[in-house]
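ok so dumb question maybe but i'm new to this and my supervisor (M.) told me to 'just get the structure for TonB-dependent receptor' and walked off. so i did the thing. is this what she meant?? sequence i used:
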Amino acid sequence: MKLGRVFFFLLIVVLPVATFSQNKLFTSQVIAADSSAVPAVITIQSSDSTVIKKMITDSLGHLTIQHLKDGKFILHVSALGFEDYYMPFSAIAGSYLLPRFVVLQQSSNALAAVVVAAKKPAVVVKNDTLEFNASAIRLGEDASTEDIFQKLPGIEVSKSGAIKASGETITQIYVDGKPYFGADIKAVTQNFPADMIDKIQVINKKPEGTPDDGSYEKIINITLKKNKKRGVFGNTALAAGTPGTYDARSATNYLHYDTKLSVIANTSNTNNGNTDANAPGNLATTAVKASYAAASTKMDVSIWTAYNSSNNKTSQQLFRENFLVDSSGYYAENNNGQYKNRNIGAGLYVEYRPDSFSVVKVNQSAGFSADNSSSNAVFTTAGTDKTTIINEGSSSLNGNNKSKWLNGSINYNRRLAANGRSFNFELVNRLNTGNGRLFSLYHNIYPDTLAGVLQNRLNNQENTGKNVVATASYNEPVTANGTLSFSYGINYNNNDLPKTIYAYNAATGAYDLLLADISNHFDNTSKSGTAAVTYNYHTKKAGFFAGLRWKQAAINSNTFNKDSSYSAAFSGLLPNAGVYITAKKIQQNLDYNMYIRAPDAIQLQPIIDNTNPLYTRLGNPDLQYSVVQTLKYKLNWYSSKKETGLNALASISFLSNNISTNLVYDETTGKQVITPINTGGAYNWNAWCTFYKPFHIGNDKLKWNVNVSGSGAAAGNLLNGMENTGTFKTMRVLTGLIYDGKEWLDVRTNVSFTKQSSRYSLQQDMDVSTGYITVNPVITVRPTAKTEINIDYDYRSLKGSNENLNNNVNLLNANIRQYVDDKKAIAISLKAFDLLNENNNTTRIFGDSYMLDTTTNTLSRYFMLSVSFRLQHFN
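this is what came out, is it supposed to look like this??
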């Protein structure tokens, strides 16, 4: 009932906006009978054939008519190679009664001519953009946009639906150049059918209006086919299986040219709602999402809202090796937990163009989140001989948190002249509040305390955060291809963090004993100002930028109940520069940037956080800002003739005053005390390269790609007072094959080899490494026109220096789909997940002075029967 009210409210809000955008002025596009755009000459005549207006469309055939007095007119459209188009129309109260598309017919002379059509290339390399032709990918009848991404070279789609391009994470997705569903990428990729997509663009989106400093956000824009922009499409699926599994989902979408409306709902307990089936825990999710977008000549509007709830039950085994000066300590834990979350959010994007020189963009989102968590654990810590127990115990944690937020930006850009002079102002806001309660019960037993030490507490934590960033910039052309940019920005951030801790009072049965020595109330404020000047030089084939920024920054942290104040500051010059070279087949970028990282304000306070008795955190009032220097290289190359390409990315960063840790480990009790410190000599790097080309087998093609990637880091820390440097490295080789040359057969397979290793200067002879092997063939066979069989095999092998990690998994899934009708709108499916019942989730991570292996329960074998309905109707 509540959902119906929400949808009714959306209709009330949405429909007037759509009506207003369509009736106040007239925008149209001139197209040919095959829906291709046609540039044309537009003449508006009065009823007695007097010429009122004459104009030319843009290269895509778009035209706009406004400011006509009420009356009757004749629209005349003419284009080379087409018959002239005449249509009488009326203007009534500022509205124009005309079709959204003007369709021209080829002239008889043009029809008699011989037309030679060039083949559209599969990949196009542009500056800051890599464009893929979606029609070059062969897919099944009910394939989604996500299925296209899985076959694109240089694109990686995880089991959870997250997307990486050239090794970098995609953060947003646009539809026809405008935001849709906010940052929810899967709402688009898993909802829009593949046969609607014309092209896919991977874009390095630079900050609005600010001087070029080499920074960008990786986004994706999908362009819909012209003949798929007016209609209704969607799907509904209902499934149930063993043991007690269920999955139900529905999506309905309405398109009318620049107006889009989508409503999505799903509920599942097969880890499909928000993550992949191999993810840790047994996850049940429910989600309801809606998005609306409309566009007119002066304004674009996009609205979205979403409700999500999740319930994840986990069972874990942890094994941590703590590296000491000349030996190791060992920690083992078994825990069971449950995490519940529900959140609701909404967002608004408005792009307003009051005139041809100005653009105002408003992008805001707000939301509320509430979660509850509980866990119970038993643990032991062993000495360097792995057998002597130096502590053991149990813990019980129960907590809840609530938070609200309002985040977004307002941007104003004004072109001051036709030659490129412009002014830009942007205001960014991040406002959030939260409060949480944590009941923690620890029972620790040490060799000299047979009864053990009991710690029973209640932690109350509140947080109010305010962050405002304002930036103004001005661009002045100084040559035909050169621009000088000036900017100034301020950044204000404040966090109010009251925290009270109470001990349990057995006499009263309540948490009413205030622990004043570890309770605190911090008010942290950071401010910075940045003045920058940048010179940009751009041509079609090459360009560069060089900039210099003067930055002043300061952090102040005040403690109300302890009457103390601590601060850190930075002032200095930060240079940046970049160069690009673009040719017909290749595009290269080389960027250098220098910036600072601030310490956490709370790290400056001499606090004592011993919520976990075995793990105490302290603050450090002497912490300084870190300075980071980064060099990044990018390359995109593609030969349309050979259908062969190469994408590469490499970067390296050097950090001075890196914020690291000083760890004191008590070998007699297993207790650890961590203090943040500044160290030198830190660096990190990553490299990513993929090469792809087809092999021709008769009339068929076998698409092959190979990817080589690596990353590494080094950082210093203190371990029991001695300097230690940890060096970490990961290398991976992945190769893949795609065969879709036959209508009845589709094969996609990936094989990867990964090695992860770490070295510590205090124990140089210690070998800490991990090897990963994955083999993932996916085969789809269509023995008849209405039958589809899919087999997905995922082999994972993990081998490490610790016997707890060695693990082999054979995950075999199968799905049989039978279409009921000739249009393939109704289907019945039988799915088998983890037929061999071997699925598990095992991970390894490295820290400054430890290695942690974790095994978590995950979804196991089930069988599921489903029925699905697919709707597609386009005009």
